[in-house]
């Protein structure tokens, strides 16, 4: 509020009837002890303290503590249910891990047996193919040896005639005359033996 100079000049009405405190306006003779500290009021204060404490105790006992106890019981029940569920889930997880490990071991065993079977099958196929190839090579080798022996036999047959022709040419060149075929054949046969 805005104070004007005219309002500020007004003076408070004077109190008639005795001395007053300057700040409170309370008469000086009313100056006594603070009522809660007055020994004359202790019995009533103690009575009200007991009544208030009793009511507060009854309130706590009948209202607050049952609610708090109920909340604690609910929490304990929830915790025990959670622990039971956790142990159940842990058991299920352990069972799942055991089943997984068993299936993994079986899969490894199956993979090993499948690998062994595949290796055995490949080895058998390779052995069969090797035997077929060896048989084919033996057959070709036999045919080649037969051809070589026939070529050799033919060559040996012709060697005699070639030797006779060569001997005839040598005799003609050295002696200057011709020898008979029968003489040359007899000479080649005697040397070939």
Q: Overview of this structure, please?
A:
The protein has 193 residues and is mainly alpha-helical. It has a domain at 41-150. 78% of the residues lie in helices and 0% in strands. The protein is built from 3 helices and no strands. Helix 2 (42-175) crosses helix 3. The chain is rod-shaped, with a radius of gyration of 69 Å. The relative contact order is 0.02. The mean pLDDT is 83.
Report the principal-axis shape. rod-shaped
**Total number of β-strand segments?**
0
Helix-strand pattern, N to C? HHH
Number of helices: 3
What class would the helix/strand composition place it in? mainly alpha
**For the CA atoms, what is the radius of gyration?**
69 Å
* Main beta-sheet strand count, sense and barrel state: none
* Average pLDDT number: 83
Summarize the helices and strands and which ones pair or pack.
Layout: H1 5-8, H2 42-175, H3 181-192
Quick recap:
The chain has a domain at 41-150. Helices cover 78% and strands 0% of the residues. It has helices spanning 5-8, 42-175, 181-192.
Short descriptors:
193 residues; mainly alpha; rod-shaped
């Amino acid at each position: 509020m805005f104070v004007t100079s005219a309002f500020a000049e007004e003076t408070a009405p004077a109190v008639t009837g005795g001395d007053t405190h300057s700040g409170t306006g309370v008469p000086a003779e009313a100056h006594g002890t603070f009522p809660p500290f007055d020994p004359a009021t202790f019995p009533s204060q103690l009575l009200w303290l007991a009544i208030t404490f009793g009511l507060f105790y009854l309130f706590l006992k009948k209202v607050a503590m049952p609610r708090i106890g109920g909340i604690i019981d609910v929490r304990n029940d929830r915790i025990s249910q959670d622990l039971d569920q956790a142990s159940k889930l842990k058991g299920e997880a352990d069972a799942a891990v055991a089943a997984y490990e068993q299936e993994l071991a079986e899969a490894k065993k199956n993979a090993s047996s499948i690998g062994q079977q595949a290796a055995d099958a490949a080895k058998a196929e390779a052995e069969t193919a090797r035997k077929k190839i060896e048989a084919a090579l033996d057959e070709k080798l036999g045919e080649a040896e037969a051809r070589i022996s026939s070529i050799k036999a033919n060559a040996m047959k012709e060697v005699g005639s070639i030797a006779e022709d060569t001997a005839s040419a040598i005799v003609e060149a050295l002696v200057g005359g011709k020898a008979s075929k029968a003489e040359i054949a007899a000479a080649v046969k005697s040397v070939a033996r």
